[in-house]
Amino acid sequence: MAIFLNENSKVIVQGMTGAEGTKHTKRMLASGTNIVGGVNPRKAGEKVDFDGTVLPVFGTVKEAMEATGANVTVIFVPPAFSKAAVVEAIDAEIELAVVITEGIPVHDTAYFWAHAVATGNKTRIIGPNCPGIISPGKSNAGIIPANIAGSGKIGLVSKSGTLTYQMMHELRDFGFSTAIGIGGDPIIGTTHIDALEAFEADEDTVAIVMIGEIGGDAEERAAAYIKENVTKPVVGYVAGFTAPEGKTMGHAGAIVSGSAGTAQAKKEALEAAGVKVGKTPSETAALMREIMNAL
Q: What is the rounded CA–CA span in Å between residue 28 and residue 140?
């Protein structure tokens, strides 16, 4: 099985005709994703040929859903227009919206996140500023390279795109049920806890890798959730062990002050919940390899 995305997912791409949308639509199609159309109000009614696969362009998400039965949208819309694009997807009640765009203002993300909640949480948002989600061999919604690893029984949830790729490559001999890059912005749609809950319920996921970053308390909250609710083995990695105190670090805008938000504090919280934490991505992969070999 897989979580949130599977072989039955029908995907549309908002911003499909833009440079990034075009490039990654080709890559998603090549990896076997069932893309059924795109959305661009200025090009509605046109058709686009992607190396022999001809896809229609619709004026709105709702029109695309009605015509194709789409239940997933991948959003490659520039930051200034992303709030409107995500709100449109929420209003159309699409099941999953994967927001790839980087640089969306935090107040815009707060707005569409609150809008999703206020309208009944009918649309799951992944991102923004994320690489997306892949269920290898089934579907790929976003920019994660499809040839890193095949299908398997490890679930992966990560704040970092590049560390998602590295962990998939390191554990490619075991494979993944689903790998999710949730993004590192201050406000995101799907959290570590959301993914952990889904992996715990997925009968074909037997172990979980969780990758976090310095700053905030998301990893500490995830540790508390794991302690109370997760029965499957979890290994973790927290990026930023060598980060200088008191500096804003990286795309997460992670500010470390005293012991709050440090990699060490997060590591200790996770270990207290029974999670084995590696000091490097490779050490974390080795910990998971030990677990998988013992199962």
A: 6
Dist CA 95 CA 202 (whole Å): 18
pTM exceeding the 0.90 threshold for the entire prediction:
yes
Say whether 101 counts as a known binding-site residue.
Answer: yes
Strand 124-126 versus strand 11-14 pairing type: unpaired
Count of domains observed in the chain: 2
My answer on whether 239 and 271 are in the same domain is yes
Same domain, 82 and 200: no
Residue 19 assigned to a binding site: yes
pLDDT tens, residue order, the chain (295 aa): 799 999 999 999 999 999 999 999 999 999 999 999 999 999 999 999 999 999 999 999 999 999 999 999 999 999 999 999 999 999 999 999 999 999 999 999 999 999 999 999 999 999 999 999 999 999 999 999 999 999 999 999 999 999 999 999 999 999 999 999 999 899 999 999 999 999 999 999 999 999 998 878 899 999 999 999 999 999 999 987 666 665 555 544 454 444 557 888 899 999 999 999 999 999 999 999 999 999 9
Q: Which domain holds residue 68?
A: 11-126
CA 253 to chain centre: 18
Closest CA to 157 of 104, 83, 230: 230
Here the CATH number for the domain that contains residue 15 is 3.40.50.720
Q: Is residue 137 part of a domain?
A: no
One domain, residues 92 and 210? no
CATH of the domain at 213: 3.40.50.261
The catalytically annotated residue of 24, 115, 192, 251 is 251
In our burial notation (b when 16+ CB lie closer than 10 A, e otherwise), range 23-50 reads: ebbebbbebebbbbbbbbeeeeeeebeb
Binding residue per annotation — 18?
Answer: yes
**Is 110 annotated among the ligand-binding residues?**
no
Active site residue 251: yes
83 and 115, same domain (yes or no): yes
